[in-house]
Amino acid sequence: MAPRRPSKIPDHIEMIMYPVPETRQDSSADNETSASKLADTVSDTLFKKDSLDRKLERHHITGIAFSGAVGIGFFEISSEIIALGGPVGAIIAYIFAGLVILSVLRCIAEMVSVRPVKGPLMDFPHTFVDEALGFAVGIMYWLANCMSCVTLTISAAMFTQYWPSDFSMPLAVFMLLLAIFFMNACGVQLYGNMEWVFKWMKILLLVALCIVMIAIKAGAGSGRDRRVDSKFEISPGYSPTGFFAKAGTSSVDRDQVAILGTGGRILAVWTCTTLAMFQFMGGEIVLVTAGEAKRPRRDLPTAARYMYLLPVGFYLVAILLVGLNVNYLDPRIYHSHISWYPESEPRLDGIATVLRSPFVIAIKNAGIKFLPGFLDACFIISAMTAANSALYVSSRTLFVLAQRSKHDLIVRTLGRTNNGHTPLAAIFVSFLPGLLAFLAVKSQNATFQEPIHVFGRLYTGSVLCIYGSECIAFLRFKKGLAFYHRIMDRDGKMYKLNYYRAHWQPLWAYLGLLLSSLLMIFSGWAAIYDLVARSDGVNRRDAIVDLVAAYLGPALFFCIYLLYKWRYKTQFRGLVDMRDVWFPANVPDEDDEGTGTNNSLKGGKGRFREFLSWIR
Ligand SMILES: NC(=[NH2+])NCCC[C@H](N)C(=O)O
């Protein structure tokens, strides 16, 4: 398909950038026999229907991405973060995690505005760094989303156990998986509309939680239960005390703080940041819609630029407010490194339950009765819709991977769509790992934590590798542009007019690369500490599982990369090979005029209007 010509490009440059298809054939094409050309034509005709439908409007795209980014982590795991780092440590951790997302999204937003192709997340490393890196990113992104689908499904199923009923865990997992499969299988437009509704439900939930937290701080409720606070021997204040060791006693005292002082605090905040990453991940999902977006060149860069603002903004405000309302030494706020419980409290370790949420703890302390049950229902929906997005992402990633595959059988099975342009085979295969959610079912109504934890860590570790790869791809992309600056000047007017040009680059790329690498490398340090420094009193098996979960994703990523590189002898892309930047394949037909990606030229008002139109 001939790429669409953006408006406002001078004619002589247009000829270079968007040559007619014939001129794009390279010399090897001359040698093609007419037989193979005929085969191509036949296969083109046969597989014409195997493409995705371009039906997603901007609000669908942001719905899918928002719904995928805001799952259950913030509502539930935030308690672990507050427990470890105190309210202040939690905010610092959220700022760091937000910074990683901000940096990465700035890089991919610019690349996608120049190259709005199908499967952009794997295309960028493939085109600008190394084919093997693109492959590793594709496979690991697929796997990571399958794993996050498992984690989110288990969480949703465990939340159903809050109400006393006959709704057993196996039944809950089964019904959730069924719902997720059918929502994905019923066509992209319906799916997009559903996710748009879920996005608004989640926004309302976040706003409501903030309002309730402000009200409680102002004295709402039938009175704060101060009895819990009085049990603690350390007065918590707001900042972290230090890094806690594992302990199983019934009260907390200073001996249980393994590393005191500034070092301990820094380590506590670092561990919080690793945990917070799970909550912030998912903003990049906007790019996965590239194959189904109606106007990818216009909508994707804008959505990628603004995508992080809503979740990050809400998360920061809400964590600040909830931190003011809970005592971070409250035994009901759980983290595996702080596991003491007064005998009177039910042990909640490992159980995803509304009772672990810091918001619910604050609400219960304030004596508001009916809200926990209502919030539980909201959390089930939130987790389920994020699992829904995870299946959407994994199926589309697998579909694009299959279409790019060198093996005909894979192209003709997983790379196909049904008559409604839904990649059913890819959806089904990506759904299968979801059955691992049944692992969480120990017995009727009993639950255990390990699968949630392991799959969640696997997802985080893998996505951190992908974020690092996107930053490297951006650095190469920028170098490539500098190399070909006579054809396309990143600082020139034409570029600024037609594409999104992120300010302060390559600073964001370096920052994203540095933070994601550090987070990946040191994500398992607490487990190593448990194993090495405090061998007594620590459950070694737990620590080993923790360690494996932290590093399995990155290890798999590097293995896949090296294996592909070794098998296909791929080379790093030289700058000269980056002609692809200006000859993007598969740029879709867009049904509106112009690219409209660059709002910075529209001035403050234009940008604000753009932002509002995106929020819808
Ligand atoms: N669609 C996904 N893969 N979502 C996984 C991201 C998890 C999400 N950030 C959460 O806090 O629950």
Automatic annotation (TrEMBL):
- Tell me the Gene3D superfamilies matching this sequence: Amino acid/polyamine transporter I (1.20.1740.10)
What membrane topology does this protein have?
A: Multi-pass membrane protein
Could you tell me which residue ranges the Amino acid permease/ SLC12A domain spans? 60-572
Localization:
Membrane
Q: Name one Pfam family in it.
A: AA_permease
Keyword line? Amino-acid transport, Membrane, Transmembrane, Transmembrane helix, Transport
User: What is any one of the record's Gene Ontology cellular component terms?
Assistant: membrane
Superkingdom, according to UniProt?
Eukaryota
Transmembrane region(s): 91-112, 133-159, 171-191, 203-220, 267-287, 308-329, 379-402, 423-442, 454-477, 507-528, 543-564
| Gene Ontology MF terms in the entry | amino acid transmembrane transporter activity
The answer to whether keyword Oxidoreductase applies is no
Keyword Lipid metabolism part of the UniProt annotation: no
Q: Which PANTHER family match?
A: AMINO ACID PERMEASE, GENERAL AMINO ACID PERMEASE-RELATED
Annotated protein name in UniProt: Cationic amino acid transporter 2
Gene from which the chain derives: SLC7A2
